[in-house]
Amino acid sequence: MHTGDRTEPGDKPSPANMALTEVLTVLEALDTVGCQYWLEGGWGVDALVGQQTRPHRDLDVDFDAAYEGAALAVLQQLGYVVDTDWRPNRVELVAPTRGRVDMHPLLLDADGGARQAALEGGYHHFDRSWFTVGELGGRRVPCLSAEAQRLFHQGYEHRPIDRHDLDQLAGLG
Prior knowledge:
two-stranded antiparallel sheet
């Protein structure tokens, strides 16, 4: 479960902010392997708003874990390399001068929900109502709902970017 664009212990400085053009390139690559995915974190909030509202350190992508090998391979073809590997919870890739992609594998459930392995064991559960569609750069993109985004912004001290994202979510109603 994502908790904002906050830096985790051991994370290295980002080589670049994640540009919208790069986000769209990553999503197009994931589309080529038939992988279901949903944006969360800052880009997920921006997808709900329908436009980029701030700079982003990375792109957070929840995706169907059944496509993990193919998804990572297609990102590696774009020049991304694994930087942080906390599988089965998450794997972060980096491409110098282009940015970071933080991949969160989900086990999709028959009822339309999903589960993400938790670092401490067990699972984070995603209700099927959390999966929706937003827009970035004139393209419809799958993302997590405002409800899910608000939940993911709980349990930690908010930084200015977290407050910005919460203000954007509040503006959605």
